[in-house]
Design a protein that fits this description.
By secondary structure, the protein is mainly β. It has one domain: Sandwich (Jelly Rolls). Helices cover 8% and strands 48% of the residues.
C-alpha cells in the first residue's frame, strides 16, 4: 500500500503555531517591554554601567560616584532599556572641585573620541554656583542650547539637589528640587537611554555622587 503523503499545509500550520507559542512564552520572537527602576545604590549598581571617562564606583556603601577625569566628560547610564515617555528623578551632589553636572535623557549610544561627550540626546545641567542649563546634541555632534546657563534659586549651592525630567512625546519638563525651571517641545529624539554626566575641569580632587535614581514609565 502506498504511504499517504502529508499536505504541505500541515507543515505551515505547525510553524505558525510554534511561532505563536514562542511569542506568548517570551521566546526569541517576543518584544521586550521597557520597565522603570528604583536604584538606591545601597552596595549595588544593578543595571548601571560606565559609559565613558572616569570610573564609577560605590562610595560608603550608599552612593554611586565618580571622580571623573580632568578635561573630559565622564558618564554612566542605566543599560537595561531605552525609554520613550517617563519621569526620571535623581538626588545628586558634587563634593569639592568645580565643573558641570548633567542628567542625560533620550540618549543614543555614541561618545566623542576626544571629549568623551555622550550623544545624541538631551542634557539637563547645573553648577554648584546656582546656575542651570539645557542643551541637546544631534547624531552629527552638532550641539545647541535650549536654555543657556541661567541663575536660579532652585539650586542648593554645594549641597544635595533633586533633578527631574518628565518627557511625554515632544513635551519636556525640567525640575530642580520640585521647582519647574523649564518646559519646551522638541522632536529631535523620541526615545533613548537615561543616565548622568559630569566634567572634571582641573586636576583638583572632586567627587560627583548619586544618592538614588528612579524612573517611572508613562
Amino acid at each position: 500500500m502506498m504511504e499517504k503523503k502529508k499536505s504541505p499545509r500541515v507543515g505551515l500550520i505547525a510553524l505558525f503555531v510554534l511561532i505563536a507559542v514562542l511569542m506568548t512564552a517570551g521566546g526569541a520572537f517576543a518584544e521586550k517591554t521597557a520597565t522603570g527602576f528604583d536604584s538606591q545604590f545601597n552596595g549595588t549598581t544593578d543595571g548601571w554601567v560606565k559609559k565613558a571617562g572616569g570610573e564609577w564606583f560605590i562610595k560608603d556603601n550608599k552612593f554611586y560616584a565618580t571622580r571623573g577625569k580632568a578635561g573630559i566628560w565622564s558618564s554612566a547610564y542605566y543599560k537595561e532599556a531605552t525609554y520613550e515617555d517617563f519621569v526620571y528623578t535623581a538626588r545628586v551632589k558634587r563634593r569639592t572641585g568645580t565643573g558641570i553636572n548633567c542628567m542625560a535623557v533620550r540618549m543614543g549610544a555614541k561618545t566623542d573620541a576626544t571629549t568623551k561627550l555622550w550623544y545624541p540626546g538631551y542634557y539637563f545641567c547645573y553648577w554648584d554656583d546656582g546656575t542651570y542649563g539645557i542643551d541637546k546634541c544631534d547624531p552629527s555632534v552638532t550641539c545647541s542650547s535650549i536654555q543657556p546657563s541661567t541663575p536660579t534659586e532652585a539650586v542648593v549651592k554645594n549641597g544635595w539637589n533633586v533633578l527631574k525630567v518628565a518627557a511625554n512625546g515632544t513635551s519636556f519638563k525640567f525640575y530642580i528640587n520640585s521647582t519647574l525651571v523649564k518646559s519646551f517641545f522638541d522632536s529631535m529624539r523620541s526615545s533613548g537611554y537615561v543616565g548622568f554626566m559630569m566634567v572634571r575641569e582641573t586636576t583638583d580632587p572632586t567627587l560627583f555622587m548619586m544618592d538614588w535614581a528612579k524612573l517611572t514609565v508613562k
